[in-house]
Amino acid sequence: MLKYKSSDAEKLIDLFSSIYEKNNDFSLIENELKELCNYPVKVIEVFLSSMEFIKDKDENYLKDNYQGIIGIITLRMNLV
Question: What's the structural domain count of the chain?
């Protein structure tokens, strides 16, 4: 049984997006995520490394591969 579900990844993505619009500095985003949600620090770090990997992808890639991206992030969060 997975500890984290796709809804957890989507929740973090929503928080990340709202923070990223204001400031795209990953260290500041990490600090804000730690304050706003109650996931372990290591899970947030793994999530952010996933987001850093896809940050240069274009919007069409992200739309076409959304479910796969959610799945990979969720798996990575569970491997912490």
Answer: 1
Domain coverage including residue 51: 6-78
Per residue of the chain (80 residues), what is the pLDDT tens digit? 889 999 999 999 999 989 988 888 888 899 999 999 999 999 999 999 999 988 888 989 999 999 999 999 999 999 99
Tokens 């923070």 belong to 19
Question: Could you write out the DSSP letters of every residue in 19-69?
Answer: HHHH---HHHHHHHHHHH--S-HHHHHHHHHHHHHHTTS-HHHHHHTHHHH
Whether 68 is in a domain gets the answer yes
Amino acid identity, position 75:
L
Could you tell me the pTM of the whole model? 0.88
